[in-house]
Design a protein that fits this description.
With about 350 residues, the protein is α/β, with parallel strands linked by helices. The protein folds into 2 domains: about 170 residues, Rossmann fold, CATH 3.40.50; about 150 residues, 3-Layer(aba) Sandwich (Rossmann fold), CATH 3.40.50. Helices cover about 50% and strands about 15% of the residues. Helix 2 packs parallel to helix 7, helix 3 packs antiparallel against helix 9 and helix 8 runs parallel beside helix 12.
Length: about 350
């Protein structure tokens, strides 16, 4: 690894970032959950953009899994821009949780400022002193060390871990689930070790592909969206993430030998639908990656052992997929540490992604 290869270094720091966030952020999550529960909330909106939206989706699965009755708060993930432009009617029993690794995402800051005094605002960020810290009623700061990368790697896992902690505390989850969250770090470590041994042999076979479809069910769907984003950002390759049945009724119509596909499994009964689409994609001529405990279609398999609590699965599924995206980028002559799309993001006002 050269000094220019900082992204794989950060990817490999992901397990420790998960552990550090659990250790250093749980107290903040307890305090925020206490403030949240005093309001007897009816809705908890998890709001973010891009990677932070996919983190919101993954954490929302935790809330939906823990809800036991219709009177429990409904946990909803919403894109920040959509929430800003089509804001629902809110009152004191609503909670807004905004996720921004940089703490500088424009739409989220506008929302937080507008909703001052109308509902509880909980900010989740990786950067102490960032703008979101000034607008939040309660604050969670994830851990694992700073990142200077435009492409989010370990900060995805650390802010997501913080969001999981908040939801677990809000629903008074049993100690076993906090242990399962800690187990995510170990599963991520093992998955990265397996991927590191295989990816180098694979990329030469796929470096000339220009299209990819990623799919999964439930939390694996959230993982597919983030993994596809990493392939776009790093390898400059057209990649889409889909819920498995959305894949079957849309992208599957074009799958053939020009594509590779990636299927994500969580070791639950939901895998059967994903496996069916994986087998069909292979029959239609696509090359196939399968991330999960086992292979169903018999092409490339990256072992990722299942978590006992399915919503935590994204923490171990995404990092090996990000490593694949990085190696794919380098084989195609791209340097993700210095992405050429920086100017495009700056032109759109997305300075929060540029380490500024």
């Amino acid at each position: 690894m050269t000094q220019n290869e900082l992204i794989p270094l950060e990817i490999n720091e992901t397990p420790e970032a998960i552990r550090q966030t659990i250790q250093h952020t749980r107290r903040q999550a307890k305090d925020a959950a206490s403030a949240l529960n005093k309001r007897q909330p009816r809705r908890i909106f998890l709001v973010g953009n891009g990677t932070s939206l996919y983190s919101s989706m993954a954490a929302a699965y935790t809330g939906r899994s823990l809800a036991t009755s219709a009177t429990d708060p409904h946990v909803i993930a919403v894109p920040a821009g959509d929430f800003r432009n089509f804001m629902p009617k809110l009152d004191a029993r609503d909670v807004l949780v905004g996720i921004s690794a940089s703490g500088e995402f424009r739409d989220l800051l506008v929302i937080f400022e507008e909703l001052a005094g109308r509902c509880l605002r909980v900010g989740i960020t990786h950067v102490p002193g960032s703008s979101i810290t000034r607008f939040s009623d309660e604050l969670l700061i994830s851990a694992g060390g700073p990142s200077q990368m435009s492409v989010m790697t370990k900060t995805y896992a650390s802010t997501l871990t913080a969001a999981h902690l908040l939801v677990l505390e809000s629903f008074s989850a049993p100690a076993e689930l906090f242990s399962q969250l800690e187990t995510s770090a170990h599963l991520c470590e093992a998955a990265l070790d397996s991927a590191d041994k295989k990816v180098a042999e694979i990329v030469s076979d796929i470096q000339n592909f220009e299209h990819a479809f990623y799919f999964g069910a439930g939390p694996a769907y959230a993982a597919s969206l983030e993994a596809a984003l990493k392939m776009k950002e790093m390898a400059m390759l057209h990649a889409e993430g889909s819920e498995v049945w959305e894949f079957a009724s849309g992208p599957a119509t074009t799958v053939d030998k020009r594509f590779f596909c990636a299927a994500f499994y969580t070791g639950t009964p939901h895998d059967s639908d994903v496996a069916n689409s994986a087998k069909l994609s292979r029959e239609w001529g696509a090359r196939l990656f399968e991330f999960g405990p086992q292979s169903y279609a018999g092409d490339w398999h990256i072992p990722v052992q299942p978590n006992g609590f399915e919503p935590f699965s994204t923490l171990s599924l995404v990092p090996p997929a990000a490593l694949l995206a990085y190696r794919m980028a380098r084989s195609r002559g791209h340097y993700p540490e210095r992405p050429h799309w920086r100017d495009r993001y700056l032109a759109q006002g997305l300075t929060h992604l540029m380490g500024k």
